[in-house]
Sequence to fold (340 residues):
Amino acid sequence: MKRGLALFLAALLTALTLTACGGGGGYSGGSASSAPADSESQTAYDGSGDEWKAEVREFGFDAPAEPEATTEEPREDRLASAKMVYTASIQAETQDYDACTAALEELVDRLGGYLEYASSDSRGDGSRSASYTVRVPAKEFRGFLKTVGEISHVTSQDQNAENISERYYDTESRLETQKTKMERLQTLLSKAENMEDIIDLENAISETEYQIEQLTGSLRHYDSLVDFATIDVRLREVLRLTTVEEAPPTFGSRLGNAFTDGLRGFGDFLQDVAVYLAYNWTWMVLLALIVLAAVKASKRAQARRAERFGGPFQEPKAKRDGFFKRKKKDEPKNPDDKQP
Fold:
């Protein structure tokens, strides 16, 4: 161990001595390139470093490795190759229903999307509502959400982004495997001579074709979800837009706001009742006629019963007084038993 260390130190000392001699111009055993005489050759010697590396190798040492030149490349987006599915759900309201629905449909066409589902209905109070399932290109997803907030009053909004890269690439790999299998089966079928082998190969080919169709359909469905974002929009027509008010600072302000909101709510309730009665007046009239007919029929039945018994119908006395008539406490049993 000590002998090896001594040899290493001796070799290192010799290399340093030779290098120092070569730098001063008195090294006689080297070539002209190893002993530069002027400053220009000295600069070339120090810049390349090939000469001192050769000298170090002569004594059995490896020259240190030079650091590799690294070039900074632009960092790629982490989601550039990811298969992302964007979905959203929007609850909105408007005071101009016709203009808002027209602007929404025009927005979908302008962004290059389409309406996958659309429906509209009318409620009993005369207000209308609409439901849409909108498909827009994924790159226009944020722009669509922003514009919907400008053409209507959004009350709630939910967004979701799902990464389906693992499922997508797994399905793609399985599809390539099935295609390779199909090629091999067709090659074997072309070389088969036995009828039993031919039948087995045809069955295997049929099953492989089914798997290829299933996997191809799954990839097309994934591509549709990735290329086009899905947004569910629910639009309602209202008289007043829903506003989010800040909490009042004082008790008086809270009390005044509560009183005002109570009056407004009571007025809205009366309006709803009036609209409901106006909308359902035919059923109300029919119900009133049925009640009136039932009252008249009851009066006729009472009149017939009175004619049958010869006078106004009265309940039996035993029923009116009860099964056991309670006697007064101080009432005597017979008038003659009264005491003075």
